[in-house]
Amino acid sequence: MKFLADAMLARLGRWLRMMGYDTIIMKPDVSDEFVVRKAVEEDRVILTRDKRIRASVKVLLVKSDDHLKQLKEVFDAFHLKSLFPEHSRCSVCNGELRKIGDKWVCIKCGKLYWEGSHWIRIKKSLKELGY
Ligand SMILES: [Zn+2]
């Protein structure tokens, strides 16, 4: 399942990438028409806080203000689970990560991820959510 997150849900979008889900994040100034067209073309579920969006693809209206609760909303709505870290994608560019020793590297932009404190925080947050 692939996602398109609107600009208000950028943080959720970055989390979904880390959870292993192909997610594009919209810039704040794009039109609803652009969002819908992109989602249809790439067969992505639209994640939005904007009730007005109507599309022929699935649209999930995200209610919570908290990014972790938002993540839970998405997981619950589509019966998903965390694929972190084995299938994590780059939080910056959505590229796939490859494990090299104790690091993960984005094959698209080259960003490095260490299994350090940030990694541990992600695991802790997932545990708190029950994943
Ligand atoms: Zn990247």
Quickly describe the structure.
The chain is α/β, with parallel strands linked by helices and 131 residues long. The chain has helices at 10-18, 32-42, 67-78, 117-129, and strands at 3-5, 23-25, 45-48, 59-61, 97-100, 103-106, 112-114. The protein has one domain.
Give structural notes:
By secondary structure, the protein is α/β, with parallel strands linked by helices. It has one domain. Helix content is 34%, strand content 18%. The chain has 4 helices and 7 strands, in the order E-H-E-H-E-E-H-E-E-E-H. The strands form 2 sheets. A 4-stranded parallel beta sheet has the order 2-1-3-4, with helices on both faces. Strands 5-6-7 form a 3-stranded antiparallel beta sheet, with helices on one face. Strand 6 and strand 7 form a beta hairpin. Helix 1 crosses helix 3 (67-78). The two termini are 18 Å apart. The model has no long low-confidence stretch (mean pLDDT 95). Bound molecules: zinc ion.
What gyration radius follows from the Cα positions, in whole Å? 15 Å
List the secondary-structure elements in sequence, H or E: EHEHEEHEEEH
Figure out the total of helices: 4
The small-molecule ligands in this entry are: zinc ion
Order of strands, main sheet, comes to 2-1-3-4
